[in-house]
Design brief:
Elements lengths: L10 E10 H15 L3 E6 L8 H13 L3 E7 L8 H9 L3 E5 L20 E4 L3 E5 L19 E6 L2 H11 L3 H7 L8 H7 L7 E8 L7 H12 L3 E6 L6 H12 L3 E7 L5 H16 L3 E5 L7 E5 L3 E5 L5 H5 L3 E7 L1 H16 L1 E4 L1 H5 L3 H22 L8 E6 L6 E4 L5 H9 L2 H4 L8 H12 L6
Parallel strand pairs: 2-3, 3-4, 9-10, 10-11
Antiparallel strand pairs: 1-7, 1-8, 2-5, 4-16, 5-6, 6-7, 8-14, 9-12, 11-15, 12-13, 13-14, 16-17
Length: 458
């Protein structure tokens, strides 16, 4: 197996705009959907019919009426409570709606808890893309909402948009992939050539994903690679902190060799047990000089990091066993001094509203709390191995079609043959191709389309 090397995936010629919270992200997303001429691709963990979901539906309906092709992929666990009427209206208007790994029909609840589609992606006209941690719901609106979640999204333009689009379509049904066609039908190569000389398109970017096939550890390895090289500083803000053994060792070693390591997690979590899990890691970090903080301003849902003066990452992946060992995730790795400074500023702003965890706080913890933390620590350490024992051979991408004969929804599943599963695994090459020359693009697109016509990827 080839050694992981992020440098071969990084491409130059990108423009990055960072957006904080739903108040910045949702208007920009709506603006680009309203301007869309060819297609809109959306992937999200949570979609709700609320102050965010309703306006989004109207924007998508207007775009569909203009003839824009739309693919909307939602996770069956995160979007379990999305009303059927919401889905019906979109499908009737021509929106291609699909559900990732549906919950079993016999269950009234959500028993399929692991291996979820946790990515939050959007691609408009193969020109603009969004990668981040914000779901499509009102939980990410913070104005006049003390329980609104702080989070971040990156808007990106440039060559990497092509790979993000390909990943979205790799998780589409056979019928839907044929409907959207090849990427080269949309890309304006003349515009890309002009961007190469535009001073605003000066960021180096790599698109890094985690799946349950060929890229199980890519996001973790991207962190590890840079943490081990860190010379000055590491700033991390993450909603759920329980990193792997390797990440924990790398962070502690960085602090020991004099690197300033600052980690912020949420002190007012939406899921209380996650803070208990984080407590079990504090002692080892603090003893080795890592500065640990709990953000108290509001729930923190962000997943950002900045290392030294150039490197940064933003996306959907937490530093916990769920994101690193089970869910489908997507991050951007960015090499740009201005973006690095902005993310450091975001983390520093969080620290201003945080309490620092010190040894005095750790020593005064009750005995029962320490016992609980020890047990939870070892349980969480083994959790990725436990997850891998849960069968997940053939997750289904469920396309939803509107039947004109009776108005009901006809749900169709992709092929489940051994051959299709083999081709599903091969779709990981979408990300592997990041380092190749543009002269190979046409040949790669043809190969990609050939592979994609057999089944949906897991």
């Amino acid at each position: 197996m080839l050694k992981f090397n992020l440098n071969r995936r990084i491409k130059d010629g990108h423009k990055i705009t960072l957006l904080r919270d739903g108040e910045a992200f949702f208007p920009r997303l709506h603006e680009l959907i309203e301007q869309a001429q060819s297609e809109v691709l959306l992937e999200t963990f949570i979609l709700e019919e609320d102050a965010v979901g309703k306006p989004l539906k109207e924007s998508l309906l207007r775009a569909a009426k203009r003839g824009v092709k739309i693919l909307l992929t939602i996770d069956s666990w995160g979007s379990f409570y999305l009303p059927q009427s919401y889905k019906d209206e979109l499908v009737a208007a021509g929106v291609k709606l699909q559900i990732y790994d549906p919950q079993p029909s016999w269950a009234k609840g959500r028993p399929k808890l692991v291996h979820r589609l946790h990515r939050k992606l959007a691609v408009i006209d193969a020109k603009y893309a969004f990668v981040g941690g914000i779901n499509l719901c009102k939980d990410h609106l913070v104005n006049d909402n003390p329980t609104g979640k702080r989070d971040y999204v990156a808007e990106v333009s440039g060559p990497v948009v092509r790979s993000i689009r390909q990943l979205c379509l790799a998780y589409a049904t056979k019928e839907f992939r044929r409907y959207f066609g090849l990427v080269d039908n949309l890309i304006d190569h003349e515009a890309l050539a002009q961007q190469a000389n535009d001073p605003h398109f000066n960021s180096k970017v790599a698109f890094v994903v985690r799946d349950n096939w060929r890229h199980r550890t890519d996001i973790e390895k991207a962190y590890l690679e840079k943490i081990k090289e860190a010379k000055k500083s590491i700033f991390i803000a993450n909603a759920y902190i329980f990193p792997s053994y390797r990440l924990t060792r790398a962070l502690r070693k960085a602090a020991k060799r004099g690197v300033s390591v600052k980690i912020v997690t949420q002190g007012k979590p939406d899921l209380p047990y996650t803070l208990v899990a984080a407590h079990s890691t504090y002692k080892k970090f603090v003893m080795d000089g890592v500065e640990m903080y709990e953000f108290l301003g509001r729930p923190l849902h962000g997943k950002i990091a900045a290392i030294d003066d150039q490197w940064s990452t933003i996306g959907s992946s937490n530093l916990d066993p769920w994101s690193l060992g089970s869910n489908l995730e997507a991050n951007l790795v960015i090499e740009d001094a201005a973006v690095n400074r902005q993310i450091r500023t975001y983390v520093e702003d969080l620290i201003k509203e945080s309490k620092r965890i010190n040894m005095q706080w750790i020593k005064h913890r009750p005995v029962l709390g320490l016992i609980r933390d020890t047990l939870l620590y070892h349980l969480m350490r083994w959790w990725p191995a436990i997850i891998r024992c849960i069968p997940n051979e053939r997750p289904v991408i469920q396309g939803v079609r509107h039947s004109q004969s009776d108005g009901e929804l006809d749900r169709t599943e992709p092929s489940k043959t051994k051959d299709s599963i083999k081709r599903i695994k091969n779709t990981g090459s979408v990300i592997d191709r990041e380092g190749k020359e543009s002269a190979e693009r046409t040949e790669s697109d043809n190969a990609f389309n050939h592979r994609m016509t057999a089944g949906a990827k897991q």
